[in-house]
Q: What sequence folds into this?
């Protein structure tokens, strides 16, 4: 029996309604899942008398981490490259939290010279350092860039700068033990690997290097934790979730148009994204825990490649050379 055009139209409308309805249902279910699986730092620990450095806290997760530490009463050192912006945020945080013990110090992690100047100032000015949060990060998309030290820019900012900084502050952290180092990495490390034959990948596609730098963050943290065993200085890393933050700003149009819909619909807010950093910095539950990877405020699993201790040792030695560590610098 032949269907009339009216029946065909009705069938078509029904089909479209079913497809659209299923898509909306799936999206809502996904949104609900994202909401229900959010990790929240429930610790009420105060940080009075404690000093914390947070790198890159002019926006995103870093700014929320600084806000939280300020509320807990810490001396907050905002380590930022854009001092003008950082000062505005400092004023905002002081006004909001009533904690006047917040300072801005200039740090451009892509410059080894800047890292050295920052560390020198901290070592001269601070009596203790209880928490160091390696939060700052950058993601390039298409343009290959090299730092003033001849290092590929994403790797310089996300790994080599923090690597050098950790060395230059380690004595202060040890002196202040128990102290904690927190490294903001990413699940996106799973899309990459670390080529030890090419630790300064100046000719590699920059967008891919963001994943590599996050892989490097994890390899670094695990090796750091091994080297710090017995010092009472712990080192852990984390994935904050996918966050609606400034890190996506270099994605060009039209890619950014589609991405912004996904970001606004499904990604966490910066405040939600900061929870695991805060948890690792303050919670009693992780006192003494070191060399682990966390997401949503609980320990998570790592691939065997990224956890390979031999790879960690080799990468550490290569990093010592590329970060231009001097014989007079503290050894870890
Ligand atoms: N957003 C996500 O979905 C996501 C997912 C996984 C991991 N992460 C990680 O989370 C961390 C925080 O990123 P975010 O998402 O909060 O992004 P964001 O809003 O872009 O914040 C990044 C911060 O790093 C700073 N920074 C960049 N380059 C720097 C340099 N050379 N020296 C010093 N500071 C520098 C930025 O300062 P300026 O204001 O001067 O640019 C900014 O304060 C990063 O390590 C990122 O890789 C983010």
A:
């Amino acid at each position: 029996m032949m269907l009339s055009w009216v029946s065909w139209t009705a069938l078509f409308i029904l089909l479209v309604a079913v497809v659209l309805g299923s898509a909306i249902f799936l999206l809502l279910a996904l949104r609900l899942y994202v909401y229900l699986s959010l990790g929240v730092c429930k610790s009420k620990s105060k940080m009075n008398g404690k000093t914390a450095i947070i790198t890159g806290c002019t926006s995103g997760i870093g700014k929320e981490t600084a806000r939280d530490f300020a509320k807990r009463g810490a001396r907050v050192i905002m380590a930022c490259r854009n001092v003008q912006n950082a000062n505005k945020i400092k004023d905002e945080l002081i006004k909001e939290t009533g904690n006047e013990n917040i300072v801005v110090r200039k740090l451009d992690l892509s410059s080894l010279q800047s890292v050295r100047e920052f560390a020198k100032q901290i070592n001269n000015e601070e009596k203790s350092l209880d928490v160091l949060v390696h939060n700052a990060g950058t993601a390039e998309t298409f343009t290959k860039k090299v730092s003033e030290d001849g290092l590929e820019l994403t790797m310089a900012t996300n790994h080599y700068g923090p690597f050098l900084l950790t060395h230059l502050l380690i004595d202060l952290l040890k002196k202040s033990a128990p102290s904690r180092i927190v490294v903001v990495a990413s699940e996106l490390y799973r899309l990459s690997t670390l080529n030890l034959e090419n630790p300064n990948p100046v000719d590699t596609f920059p967008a891919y290097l963001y994943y590599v730098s996050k892989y490097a963050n994890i390899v670094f943290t695990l090796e750091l934790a091994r080297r710090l065993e017995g010092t009472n200085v712990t080192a852990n890393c984390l994935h904050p979730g996918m966050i609606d933050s400034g890190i996506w700003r270099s994605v060009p149009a039209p890619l950014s148009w589609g991405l912004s819909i996904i970001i606004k619909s499904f990604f966490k807010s910066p405040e939600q994204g900061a929870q695991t950093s805060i948890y690792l910095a303050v919670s009693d539950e992780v006192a003494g825990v070191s060399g682990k990877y966390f997401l949503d405020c609980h320990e998570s699993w790592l691939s065997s490649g990224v956890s390979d201790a031999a790879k960690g040792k080799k990468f550490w030695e290569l990093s010592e050379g590329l970060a231009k560590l001097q014989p007079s610098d503290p050894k870890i």
